[in-house]
Every structure is written in C-alpha cells, then in structure tokens.
C-alpha cells in the first residue's frame, strides 16, 4: 500500500495479491484517513505501507515530514505487523498530471485534485516496487 499524504487529502494505492501492478484505491480527506485504513485493514492484509515523502535537492525532508512521521508512529503502534517505510515522492504530482492529460480525460475531470492524489500514490507504489525488485 502507498500513501500520498496531504494536509487536506490523501491518495491511497495498493497492489494486487501477486504484487504485479499498483492500482489507485481511493483519495480520502486526511482527517478521515485512519478510519478508512482501520476499515481496510479489517478486510485486507497489508504487508507494507509506503509513505511518499518529498526529499529536497539538499537532502532535507519536505514540509509534511513531521506529520508523516507522527502518522507512521501511530500506525506502527496500532498495527505492529505492518512494515512501514518512506519513499521519495518528488515530482509524482507533476507526473500524475501529465498522465491524466495524456489519457484524454476531460478538462473538468483533470481539475479534480483527488484523481491527481490517487495517481500520485500509484506512482509512489510503482516506483517503490521497481526500486526494490518487487
């Protein structure tokens, strides 16, 4: 599972059981993220959660670093069997917008930020899987 954490909305992506392809699951209001995850974890097995985190050119983490770390600590305590990690998500939103534009989605749908968040989560998960030979 990948999380594209935002202050307002969070994109979520998951893989198929064979870990072949990443799929967009949903975009949820960040304030409702834990309730969403609790429900999801009740019915689905998640081995690893990958949290996208911006790493600046100078190597320092982006502005959401503290919030992501706090969320990871909370999840680690509540769900100790899930492996948690971060992965550089730099430029995923830009790449997601390019994908949406090239896919022929109508202008009104392209302006829907929830689609960008979900596709960004897919890109984080795909990049993580490729980088780790999964």
Count of the domains: 1
The oligomeric state of the chains shown is single chain
Mean pLDDT equals 88
N- and C-termini, Cα separation:
13 Å
Major sheet: size, sense and barrel closure?
5 strands, mixed
Number of helices: 5
According to CATH, the fold-level topology is: Nucleotidyltransferase, domain 5
User: CATH class, please?
Assistant: Alpha Beta
Q: Over the alpha carbons, how many angstroms does the gyration radius reach?
A: 14 Å
Query: What is the CATH architecture annotation?
Result: 2-Layer Sandwich
Strand coverage percent? 15-25%
Number of strands: 5
- Helix fraction, binned, reads 40-55%
What form results from the Cα inertia axes? globular
Strand-pairing-aware structural class: alpha/beta
The CATH superfamily title: YqgF/RNase H-like domain
Which runs of at least 5 residues are low in confidence (pLDDT < 50)?
none
Features:
Nucleotidyltransferase, domain 5, alpha/beta, 134 residues, single chain, 5 strands
Write a structural description.
The chain has helices spanning 33-43, 65-78, 92-102, 107-110, 113-131, and strands spanning 2-4, 9-15, 22-29, 48-53, 83-88. The chain has 134 residues and is an alpha/beta fold. The chain has a single domain (2-131), classed as Nucleotidyltransferase, domain 5 (2-Layer Sandwich), CATH 3.30.420. A five-stranded mixed beta sheet has the order 3-2-1-4-5, with helices on both faces. The two termini are 13 Å apart. The mean pLDDT is 88.
């Amino acid at each position: 599972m990948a999380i594209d954490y935002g202050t307002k909305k969070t994109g979520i992506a998951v893989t198929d059981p064979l870990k072949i392809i990443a799929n967009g699951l949903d975009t949820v209001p960040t304030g409702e993220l834990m309730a969403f995850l609790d429900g999801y974890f009740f019915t689905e097995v998640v081995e690893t959660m990958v949290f996208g985190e911006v790493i600046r050119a100078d190597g320092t983490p982006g502005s959401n670093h503290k919030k992501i770390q706090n969320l990871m600590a909370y999840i680690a305590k509540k769900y100790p069997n899930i492996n948690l990690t971060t992965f550089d998500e730099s430029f995923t939103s830009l790449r997601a917008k390019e994908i949406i534009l090239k896919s022929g989605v109508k202008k009104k749908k392209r302006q829907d930020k929830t689609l960008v968040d979900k596709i960004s989560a897919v890109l984080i998960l795909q990049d993580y899987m490729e980088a780790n030979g999964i």
